[in-house]
UniProtKB/TrEMBL annotation:
It comes from the Bacteria. Residues 343-577 form the ABC transporter domain. Its main location: membrane. It comes from Sphaerisporangium aureirubrum. The lineage of its organism: Bacteria, Bacillati, Actinomycetota, Actinomycetes, Streptosporangiales. InterPro entries: AAA+_ATPase, ABC1_TM_sf, ABC_transporter-like_ATP-bd, ABC_transporter-like_CS, P-loop_NTPase, Type_1_exporter. This is ATP-binding cassette domain-containing protein. Gene3D superfamilies: P-loop containing nucleotide triphosphate hydrolases. It is found in: Cell membrane. GO terms for molecular function: ATP binding. It is a multi-pass membrane protein. Keywords: ATP-binding, Membrane, Nucleotide-binding, Transmembrane, Transmembrane helix. The keyword Transmembrane applies.
């Protein structure tokens, strides 16, 4: 019950005017039947002009009820859009605001997200707006019930329990039936998804071709039929049960009403009350059922409760801890010193959530202020993982990462001091400029970053077109051009706030000349900033101040190119192999398993 009342809190998002309007409409709906009963009694009791006035009043009540109904749908649509919109925004904010990625990647959080953001694509999936408005409607119904009870009590107090209790029992029975039907539906949703899949297979062009060629039509139809029946048979069984039990509801509704009608009728003949009062009691008795037994609310409430619970659990799991000061974080980020910090990985051990094997295991590494540090290693060595830990997206299982001695986990706004080009950078369906600056609006910095990345001519040519052919007037870019856009995004951050640039395979899609020109430019642009460069192209890495080779979760070799070559270890072997392949006209990247 507490949860059902708490659902009402969602109503705030509807805004005061739609909420007030809906409140009035639902109230009018709920009180119209008892008020009609009362005005009808006045019509019957009055004579002459009084009767006319009472009849007009009754007509007015009926008309007001119908008028209110005509506004109900548009207002419900508006309120629902606002409530569900605010709810989805809150869920998205929770997901994006989670301190680290492992929080949102947990299986439980993923499942809760799926429940909280499910699109209603059948009658059983409900949204918070459905639940909250149903709860409001239920409250109004009970108000209508009180009025009906008042009319009944005007004849005799015991009419109230005699009518209201069976009506409540009918509501409970119908509600129970709905809830059971709802659960049967949910239990067979898996089969529904499957029969939808097989229905798609029967009509999809590619499958159609293959099924004919392989003569597999009967096989598909058998699957389709099996899942349709598995989904529908439990529902049919439940429908039969509803029909079987229906007599109980009829008896519960009809017998008390019949007793009350006869008793009130006889009482009127005996002069216990007027005909007008008897008519009002008759109408109010029936209205009690009309007001209470409407059960559309029950299923909306039942369907919205899992969404409500999922949202509550997500708040609990993802909301920033009490006292977390986001504004403080922004201020802190704004006040970062000009000089990049000395970053240290100290005995860092890390395994991805749900996996046993550590990717990094006792990693010690220094990223000195202003240096260009290259990280190399075979596929899967943990280079990208190192960057995500550096950005604070995951926390180490053991050891720590510090910036000027402070644990980065405790540094508010730490991520904003880094500009990271991830291997899997994001391609937003937005114009190039907005892909670079995202939500920020420092035009000079944005234009500078676009120039730095060598994209000025392309930006002028695109003239604000969105970078996706899925959008009207949109265009797509080549893989290399996209990579430069992602780089420009990081260079924008470097111009505005970041002190450390992290480049994870930033030139994998670039031709050798573009890459060469880019690095020539970058040397000037990032002067004074620290740069962590991950690359399989050792020719690119060679110019780094220091190169570290990651293997077995820790740093296996470290030094300048010349030092590592002189050492004659794995880096030297990789270099010689790449040089030879390059000389032979092959690609110059290291391939997994190329060196052992
Ligand atoms: N989100 C994830 N969940 C679980 N395991 C992951 C995840 N991301 C990466 N891994 C695993 O962690 C290991 C290191 O991956 P990582 O991407 O850091 O390697 P890498 O050195 O950057 O490789 P590459 O050179 O291929 O880019 C791999 O075994 C990979 O399968």
């Amino acid at each position: 019950m507490r949860e059902r009342i708490a659902l009402l809190s969602f109503l705030r998002a509807a805004g005061p005017a739609p909420l007030a309007g809906l409140g009035v409409i639902l109230l009018v709906n709920a009180v119209a039947p008892p008020v009609t009963a009362v005005t009808m009694a006045y019509v019957l009791r009055s004579g002459g002009t009084d009767a006319l006035t009472a009849a007009l009043a009754m007509g007015g009540v009926v008309l007001a009820g119908q008028l209110a109904l005509s506004f109900q749908q548009p207002l419900t649509l508006l309120a629902s859009a606002r409530i569900d919109g605010a709810f989805r925004t809150r869920i998205a904010a929770l997901a994006l605001g989670a301190a680290t990625l492992d929080l949102v990647e947990r299986q439980r959080v993923r499942s809760l997200m799926a429940v909280a953001t499910a699109e209603p694509d059948d009658w059983a999936t409900k949204t918070p707006a459905d639940g909250a408005l149903a709860q409001l409607s239920t409250l109004m119904r009970y108000l209508g019930l009180v009025l009906c009870a008042a009319v009944l009590a005007a004849w005799s107090w015991w009419l109230v329990p005699a009518v209201v209790l069976p009506a409540l029992a009918v509501r409970a029975l119908i509600g129970q039936g709905w809830i059971r039907h709802f659960r049967v539906w949910l239990a067979s949703v898996g089969d529904r998804r499957w029969f939808e899949y097989w229905a798609g297979v029967t009509s999809a062009p590619a499958e159609g071709k293959e099924l004919r060629v392989f003569g597999a039509a009967d096989w598909v139809l058998a699957h389709y039929r099996r899942h349709v029946l598995a989904h529908l048979e439990p529902l049919w069984a439940d429908d039969r049960r509803v029909m079987r039990d229906h007599w109980l509801r009829v008896v519960l509704a009809v017998v008390p009403l019949a007793v009350v009608y006869v008793w009130v009728g006889l009482g009127t003949v005996d002069g216990h009350g007027s005909l007008a009062l008897a008519a009002a009691v008759f109408t109010a008795s029936w209205s009690t059922y009309v007001v209470v037994a409407g059960t559309g609310d029950i299923i909306s409430l039942e369907g919205a409760l899992p969404v409500f619970r999922a949202a509550r659990d997500l708040e609990h799991l993802l909301a920033p801890a009490e006292g977390a000061d986001r504004d403080g974080a922004a201020r802190e980020a704004a006040a970062v010193p000009e000089r990049p910090p000395l970053i240290r990985f100290e005995g860092v051990r890390f395994a991805y959530p749900g996996t046993a094997r550590p990717v990094l295991d006792g990693l010690d590494l220094e990223i000195r202020p202003g240096e260009l540090l290259a990280v190399v290693g075979l596929n899967g060595a943990g280079k990208s993982t190192l960057t995500t830990l550096l950005a604070g997206l995951y926390r180490p299982d053991a050891g720590r990462i510090t910036a000027d001695g402070a644990d980065v986990a405790d540094l508010p706004g730490w991520a904003s001091r880094l500009a990271v080009v991830h291997q899997g950078f994001v391609r937003y369906h937005l114009p190039l400029e907005r892909n670079v600056a995202l939500g920020e609006a420092d035009v000079a910095a944005r234009e500078g970053a676009v120039r730095d990345a060598g994209l000025a001519a392309l930006a002028a040519r695109l003239d604000g077109a969105p970078l996706s052919t899925a959008q009207p007037g949109g265009v797509d870019l080549s893989g290399g051009q996209w990579q430069l856009v992602a780089l420009a995004r990081a260079l924008y951050a470097i111009r505005t706030r970041a002190r450390v640039l992290v480049l994870d395979e930033p030139t994998a899609h670039l031709d050798v000349r573009t890459e060469h020109e880019l690095f020539q430019r970058l040397a000037g642009i990032v002067r004074g900033r620290s740069v962590v460069l991950i690359s399989h192209r050792l020719a690119t890495v060679r110019q780094a101040d220091r190169i570290v080779l990651l293997d077995g979760g820790r740093i296996a070799e470290s030094g300048t190119h010349d030092e590592l070559m002189a050492m004659g270890g794995r880096y030297a072997a990789m270099w010689l192999l790449q040089s030879r392949r390059f000389a032979e006209g092959y690609d110059d990247r290291l391939e997994a398993g190329g060196v052992r």
